[in-house]
Amino acid sequence: MENDQNTPSPSIYFSPCAPLLSPSLLFCFRSAAASASPAPEPRRTRPCPPPLRDLLARSLARPPTSVSGSSPILRSEMDEVVAASADATRDEIKIMNVYIWDMDETLILLKSLLDGSYAGAFDGLKDHDKSVDIGKRWENLILELCDEHFFYEEIENYNEPFLSAVKEYDDGKDLTTYDFEADCFSSPYDDLNKRKLAYRHRAIGEKYTKGLEKILDHHMIKVWNDLYSATDKYTDGWLSSAHKLLEEAMGKSTAEPTAKHSSINCIVTSGSLIPSLAKCLLYRLDDVVAFENVYSSWEVGKLQCFKWIKERYDGPNVRFCAIGDGHEECSAAQIMKWPFVKIEFHPDAPHRFPGLNLPTIHRIMDTVYDSSSNDG
Questions:
Q1: Residue 18 confidence class, pLDDT cut points 50, 70, 90
Q2: SS3 for 269?
Q3: Residue 87 labeled ligand binder
Q4: Phi/psi at 260 (nearest 5 deg)?
Q5: Mind telling me the catalytic residues?
Q6: Measured between alpha carbons, how far is residue 296 from residues 101, 211, 238, 244, 285 in Å?
Q7: What is the spatial distance between Cα 335 and Cα 320, in angstroms, rounded to a whole number?
Q8: Could you give the residue ranges of the DSSP H alpha helices within the chain?
């Protein structure tokens, strides 16, 4: 619901999932047509990274601004030198941006292809039957990868929120000659079977890191490449433009200077973990999202995943931004007081692929974090 009175900038709208928020809290964002800016149970927690507070304290420490017996002119000159030095030190501190992406109907399209809603949004300009056919082909390919290479038939009922969730049960055994088919992984879900699950998770992580080219045969690689190309063409470049944006976010592109920024891409998806990892590989996201940064909110919810990510990366110069199409991630971002960018596949939507770019996301983040700083 729009609220012009309380909107801090022309490009920001109140979240439809939280219309009563004050401007200092979180918003869901949409681009304004007349904007002046150019368009361009919880399982386990992870330890926080080494705190950055000491670094920040040192960089902002202020030396004395006067010297006993010095003249007012000298004190003024020294003040200017100190201020300039502090500003320069601040500029040297890198900001870490953590982007938390939804997967389905955000970075990839699948459900809307299967049910024809993507084609329907184009008022007859897109072939409905072709949409459904593409979606079914993706569905079959995802299931085949899961079953043939990711032990999915065995571990489907043992979903975990992230791949290292049972790492404590992994004794580091060399899996080079390990016979997964003979280890009798089954219920009950006791410590012994958790170790066997941990082995499987480690093997999946290693395959993810290697990439599909080292997993699939030549025929399946061609099937996969052809399907990706057909999908990207049908969706006007949705997949490739989303991938390019994640590359830019990581500083792999010169589209926007990143000297003062470092960044992390995370995926939080409502799907179960193993198929979600398979999707990352098949939709070519594995080079921009590490398997350690893929979270399944299937059982724990997106808010819990967001909290884990914040605990893992939080610091005085770390900023978070959630990007997705659903109400759950919008509400979770609202509670975390993070910026949220709403993705829609309708052709006239303000944020979609192709179209969404890094400067737009950064303007949204700057607006929210600057507003939060001003509010104290």
A1: very low
A2: strand
A3: no
A4: -100, 10
A5: 102, 104
A6: 12, 20, 23, 23, 16
A7: 13
A8: 53-60, 72-92, 111-114, 117-120, 128-149, 152-155, 191-210, 218-234, 238-249, 273-282, 302-313, 327-336, 358-374
Angstrom distance (rounded) from CA 293 to CA 283: 16
Between 132 and 71, the higher pLDDT residue: 132
On whether the CB atoms of residues 167 and 205 are closer than 8 A, the answer is no
Specify whether the CB–CB gap between 341 and 356 falls below 8 A.
yes
Length of the chain as a residue count: 376
The radius of gyration computed from the CA coordinates of the chain, to the nearest angstrom, equals 24
Q: What pLDDT, on a 0 to 100 scale, did the predictor assign at position 375?
A: 67
**Ligand-binding site membership of 129 (annotated):** no
* pLDDT tens by residue, 179-199: 999 999 998 899 999 999 999
d(CA 205, CA 52): 29
Give 247: exposed, middle or buried? Use CB within 10 Å, 0-12, 13-18, 19+.
middle
* Residues 85, 87: Cα–Cα separation, whole Å: 5
The percent of residues above 70 in pLDDT, for the chain, comes to 72
Contacts 24+ apart (CB under 8 A), 276-279: 276/103, 277/150, 277/163, 277/204, 277/208, 278/142, 278/145, 278/146, 278/150, 279/103, 279/104, 279/108, 279/110, 279/142
pTM of structure: 0.78
Give the CA dihedral 143, 306, 253, 370, nearest 10 degrees. 160
Cβ atoms of 111 and 105 within 8 Å: the answer is: yes
Residue 255: the pLDDT is 52
Count how many Cα atoms sit within 13 Å of the Cα of residue 376 in the half-sphere of its side chain.
0
Strand partners of residue 342: 324
Cis peptide before 354 (omega within 30 of 0): yes
Cβ atoms of 7 and 14 within 8 Å: the answer is yes
Helix 238-249 vs helix 218-234: crossing angle, to nearest 10:
100
Coil, helix or strand at residue 125: coil
Q: Is 102 flagged in the annotation as binding?
A: yes
Buried/exposed 288-297: b ≥16 CB within 10 Å, e otherwise: bbbbebbbbb
How far apart CA 199 and CA 195 sit, in angstroms, is 6
51, two tokens: 């705190």
Sign of CA dihedral 213, 216, 220, 226: negative
